[in-house]
Amino acid sequence: MKGILGAIAGDIIGSVYENRPIKTKDFELFSTRSIFTDDTVMTIAIANWLCEDMSSKNVLISNLQYFGNLYPNAGYGGRFIHWLMQESPQPYESWGNGSAMRVSPCAWAAESLEMAQELAKTSAVVTHNHPEGIKGALATCDAIYLARTGSSKERIKSHIEKNYGYDLSFTIDGIRPFYDFDVSCQGSVPESIVCFLEADSFEDTIRNAVSLGGDADTLAAIAGSIASAYWEIPKDISYKSINLLDDILLDVFTEFEEKFM
Q1: Alpha carbons 56 and 50: distance in angstroms, whole number
Q2: Tens digits of per-residue pLDDT, 63-104?
């Protein structure tokens, strides 16, 4: 299986280690503590927007607020919680990685790179209208779209560096010892992309991301969203991740799969 399940699986696997940082790739993928968090909820919200009316920013905002308030304890940031409660919510100049963690459905619903970029920007600016927040969503979406349409890792790396100015020349082993919890796009999106670039499989991508010891669920969600456009998600990971979704999230996931996959 490919698609937005990559972000969901990454989120669920990383959820155990978000507040228990580890610096090794040798860890249990699933446990009794594995849960979906805000990364999954917001990915599903974007997917539902695209299924309902991708041309409407009001429908987008409505979906983000509906799903956000449906799962109030999913782990949102403070300013996003405030945004969820507003009658007429306005963007708040966020550069956080929330714009990147939720963007993957845009890359799968799009019929061209340009369309993917338009959807990604729209998905970000209703909250994350800071240039770094927009850039993080765009870079992630581009990487997913290029991966799903057959681009090599070399082309993906070159495209991201050229168009978004991210330095992707570092290695995971090189940054792991001192990498810390970072919720900014600029401090987590390049790292997530390199987790994918260095990996040899979907699972290896997720292990790279969690092993950094940072914002594990979001790093793994972003990296996993790219990896699942490049490789198949192993059946056992797909099965366990899907079975941790409730009926509401699963219904939207299924509808998106049927419509766009």
Answers
A1: 9
A2: 999 999 999 999 999 999 999 999 999 999 999 999 999 999
Locate 161 and state its tokens.
């560096």
Q: What is the pLDDT of residue 217?
A: 98
How far apart, in whole angstroms, are the C-alpha atoms of residue 141 and residue 161?
14
Q: What is the mean pLDDT of residues 18-46?
A: 97
Give the span between the Cα atoms of 34 and 105, in whole angstroms.
23
Across the range 136-141, mean pLDDT stands at 98
* Token pair listed for 254: 């299924």
Amino acid at 69: N
Q: Which two tokens stand for residue 54?
A: 């991708």
pTM value? 0.98
